[in-house]
Design goal:
The complex is a heterodimer of chains A (about 120) and B (about 425). Chain A has about 120 residues and is of the alpha+beta class. Chain A has three helices and six strands, in the order βαββββααβ. Chain A has a four-stranded antiparallel sheet with strand order 2-5-1-6. Chain A has a two-stranded antiparallel ribbon with strand order 3-4. In chain A, a hairpin with a 5-residue loop joins strand 3 and strand 4. The chains are: A alpha+beta (about 120), B mainly alpha (about 425). Chain A: This is YCII-related domain-containing protein.
Chain lengths: ~120, ~425
């Protein structure tokens, strides 16, 4: 079963205080190695959180492009992993090990798989 | 005649072990819907066959075998099911009859623990956890669960459907957490059982103070957990707590259904068997390092039950136990209870000081027992005007009618002596 781990961090515009001891690059590299070595990683990467741009197409076809995520968004997706594990408990274990879970949140979502015809 | 006997047997088996049958089927097929449907079909088959063929010696094994056969038929017939199960990687032995029809009751594995952990999985909302536990382990029907929550049946049915969909869709596993995960997961299961009990102990709304059906179900669930996890001390502690608290049930309401406070209760009405059973369980729950919150609460309940009169209750010991409880579970609610015990030990003034410190606590906002406790202490100190104001504040927040009547009576006694 495929699960997408969405690593949420504070939005760059957020006025909330950032923890001084944020996760280090080494923390993330160690996690990446663990998830790769376990053979469950299908894909995964960090995302640049300063270049987010949002597109919304209005009913009349007008394309509205705005800087950043939706206004009022406190958190922004800072990275993701796509993993293949047997069940939710296994996915939650990986999410809990992700350094992002200690300073932000990691949302676990199942990837919808259509039943083969 | 025979038909009646058969129908009664089906009922008895189903009432007693519906949870077990469902748990076994869910564990085999990893699908709550399939488990429910085939269990119902097996019951229907039993109602037709048993009056003709006679009641089998091992009714549960018969039902299980029948249900499993129907599940396999359905999987063969229904492509969608087959594919879903293939996705679930159901091993071939899961679909094979591992329990022979002649197996005795005790030969059949009890899979209810797996179902407990699935129903109380933290990925489900607290409401869904309680609803699923009542539905699949306590054996309540959806309308009964809806009544327990005081919501329309359709709302509850929707909530259960959504929860089942999440179990299947996110693939919440049917398994007992390993020893390393158990300390994190077990409290969630115990909390659900405790919540069912507290709603039965003092209903959050409605005309009745007690909901005996819910209290009974909670005790039944705690007994099952205790049987399945006899060495988990908090499970033992929870069962002890429920028994020792429930022992006072008959004395807590008068003939008219009105509330009788602890100090006014006829202690001869307390259930001595429950007290004895609870006290036996408290000992192992408390023994050893790292004592848990349910065991401490059970010890407090035991001290209340052991007192021959309200006045002779061992208040110093109760305050000491609340201090321990505050250490392991620091919460304003525990502090509130401790303050009430402290007032009994050191006088109302001392209790009031602590209660006033709690007034701003977010957790207690909207909780009627805080102003009610303040009112009681102010009344005992002769500060009638302040007491009346506190009773009015409590009356604004109280949910069930008998508790409201008690508070209103106190207020009347103060304002119009």
């Amino acid at each position: 079963m495929k699960y997408l781990l969405l690593i949420n961090t504070l939005s760059p515009d957020s006025t909330e205080e950032r923890p001084a001891e944020g996760p280090t690059v080494e923390d993330f590299m160690a996690f990446d190695k663990a998830v790769s070595d376990a053979g469950v990683k299908l894909d995964g990467n960090a995302l640049d959180i300063t270049t987010a741009t949002t597109v919304h197409v209005r009913v009349n076809g007008e394309r509205v492009v705005t800087d950043g995520p939706f206004a009022e968004t406190r958190e922004i997706v800072g990275g993701y992993y796509l993993i293949d594990v047997p069940d939710l408990d296994a996915a939650l274990d990986w999410a809990a090990r992700c350094p992002g879970a200690r300073f932000g949140t990691v949302e676990v979502r199942t990837v919808w798989e259509p039943v083969q015809p | 005649m025979n038909e009646q006997r058969a129908a009664r047997s089906v009922e008895a088996v189903f009432r007693e072990d519906r949870g077990r049958l469902l748990a076994l089927l869910a564990a085999r097929f990893g699908d709550l819907d399939l488990a429910e449907e085939t269990a119902s079909e097996a019951i229907e088959a039993a109602l037709q066959r048993w009056p003709v063929d006679g009641v089998p010696d091992k009714p549960l094994a018969w039902l299980l075998t029948t249900a499993r056969r129907k599940a396999i038929d359905r999987i063969r017939r229904d492509r969608a099911y087959a594919e879903r199960l293939a996705i679930l990687q159901v091993e071939s032995d899961r679909a094979a009859p591992v329990v022979p029809a002649e197996a005795g009751f005790d030969d059949i594995p009890d899979e209810r623990l797996q179902l407990f952990f699935t129903c109380c999985h933290p990925a489900l909302s607290a409401e869904a956890q309680t609803a699923l536990t009542l539905r699949f382990l306590a054996g309540l029907t959806t309308p009964e669960v809806a009544r327990a929550f005081l919501v329309p049946t359709a709302t509850m049915a929707q909530r259960i459907v959504r929860a089942k969909r999440k179990i299947r869709g996110a693939r919440i596993p049917f398994r007992v957490p390993g020893p390393d995960e158990l300390p994190a997961r077990l409290p969630g299961v115990l909390r659900v059982v405790y919540l069912v009990f507290t709603e039965g102990y003092a209903a959050s709304s409605g005309t009745d103070l007690l909901r005996p059906d819910l209290a009974d179900e909670a005790i039944r669930l705690a007994r099952i957990l205790h049987r399945l996890l006899p060495r988990e001390r908090e499970v033992t502690g929870l069962l002890a707590l429920l028994l020792l608290t429930d022992a006072r049930r008959a004395a807590r309401i008068d003939a008219a259904g009105g509330q009788v406070l602890l100090e006014d209760q006829d202690r001869a009405l307390w259930d001595v068997d429950r007290i004895a059973e609870g006290r036996r369980l408290v000992v192992p729950a408390l023994t050893g390092p790292g004592v848990g919150p349910y065991a401490v609460q059970a010890a407090i309940a035991a001290l209340h039950d052991e007192a021959t009169a309200f006045e002779t209750t061992d208040w110093p010991q109760i305050v000491a136990l609340y201090d321990v409880l505050l250490q392991i579970e620091p919460s304003p609610l525990v502090a509130l209870n401790r303050a009430v015990a402290l007032a009994m030990r050191d006088g109302p003034e001392a209790g009031l000081v602590v209660l006033d410190e709690l007034t701003g606590a977010e957790e207690l906002r909207g909780y009627h027992l805080l102003p009610a406790a303040r009112a009681d202490l102010l009344r005992r100190l002769g500060r009638s005007t302040e007491a009346a104001a506190a009773y009015r504040a409590a009356l604004d927040l109280v949910g069930n009618e008998p508790e409201r009547a008690t508070l209103a009576r106190r207020l009347r006694e103060l304002t119009d002596p």
